Amino acid sequence: MTTFETGLFLNRIPYAKAGSGANPIVVLNGGQAFVRRPSPDRTRRDVKRIARLMPAERPVYVVGYDPAPPADYSIDAIVQDCAEILRTEIGPAAVVGISYGGFVAARLAAERPDVVRELILLVSAHRFSPEGRRSIVRQIECARTGDFAGLLAEFGMIFRRPWFNWLLRLRLWMERNRMAEKMNDPMVIVRGLSAVAAEDFGADPAWLRRIGARTLIVGGARDVFFDREALEEAAGLIPAARLELLADETHMLPVERSRDVARAISAFLAGR
Fold this sequence. Notes:
Strand order of the largest sheet: 1-2-4-3-5-6-7-8
Radius of gyration: 17 Å
Domain AB hydrolase-1: 64-264
Number of strands: 8
CATH topology: Rossmann fold
CATH superfamily: Alpha/Beta hydrolase fold, catalytic domain
Pfam families: Abhydrolase_6 (PF12697)
GO cellular component, one term: membrane
CATH architecture: 3-Layer(aba) Sandwich
Structural class: alpha/beta
CATH class: Alpha Beta
Protein name: Pimeloyl-ACP methyl ester carboxylesterase
Helix content: 40-55%
């Protein structure tokens, strides 16, 4: 039976852990960690969902972000937190970055190779697509004005299956009167999203060549946030990278093709 635990690293960074044993996998979550108000039930659901994508015999840590980020919050600050957590709390590990978390994971692997054994970028790359960057700017503006409906509407067409998108829009409509209580503090959302929007990672992607860890990039060819060009560029610059690009899939690839994603991750971590 899988064991679960939750807690804080560095007395402020929330985490959830599934399983026990050696060879840990550390997962840096997507931007929803900023957008939705954290709760024990949500944390447990997140770690269960993510752990199903990872090899069952290895412990999985899902690491969040500072719940009260400072005004000058940045990717470098998040990288420093993650490096300290790995150095003092967990030890060197396979690091998985999902979406937003991929920015952190890639930079961590480049700056602190001593703590990253393998790197997996899941529906993520070193930069947004042009449309992805425009969407992040719109999300920040919606959060700044308290327009939670507008913020979530940016995710209204991210599934490949049309009926999933329809269900998502229906759910948002049904929750419209309770949205404020489910969403995080607007300033937390703004500062979290601004940490990536403030930097142009693609301006000079040469830093990717400093990543020495064996790397797997798994993405969808129709992802509006991280398009084919961004994924292929990252795979071409990271010396030991392999790209698994699934045709016709979108940003919700880990949900809609979870078994295929799990098989790719398991094979990669097994060295196959």
